[in-house]
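During data preparation, a discrete fold description was generated, and the record follows.
___
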Amino acid sequence: MQLPLVLIGRSVTGYLEGLPPNVLHLGRWPHSAIMQAWSRCAIALIPSICPDACPTVAMEAMAMGRPIVASRIGGLTDILVDGQTGLLVPPGDVQGLREAIQCLLDDAGRRHDMGMIAKQRVVAFQANSVVPRIEEVYRKVLNS
């Protein structure tokens, strides 16, 4: 059985051509609908091949308690802890990606545990945690 894969986001020229029949592109959604969708997922999959300094998609999945299978690239390596909040694979490593996905699909307990750790970890990246730290840096600069 082939599970559906859902893509949510804006269309990029050439990106959507030739998608397999089990891949659905839903376009832009309201943030609340995206978060509801995350709550119904077993895992988050972020197979990036380009670095993203601050991958919001990872933080959204973590906030909903979902473990992540992602590429070891860009900000994903700062946000995720390999083996604790998800699994990281080299960018473009199709076999590694397949094995990591299967590993989490086969182990509901591990998915749950990683999701709970992810939910706790993402708090450090939320605005109410980050803004006071940035303000403190500004205060120190102004006082020196």
About this structure: The first helix runs from residue 31 to 39. The helical segments are 31-39, 56-63, 76-79, 94-105, 108-121, 127-143.
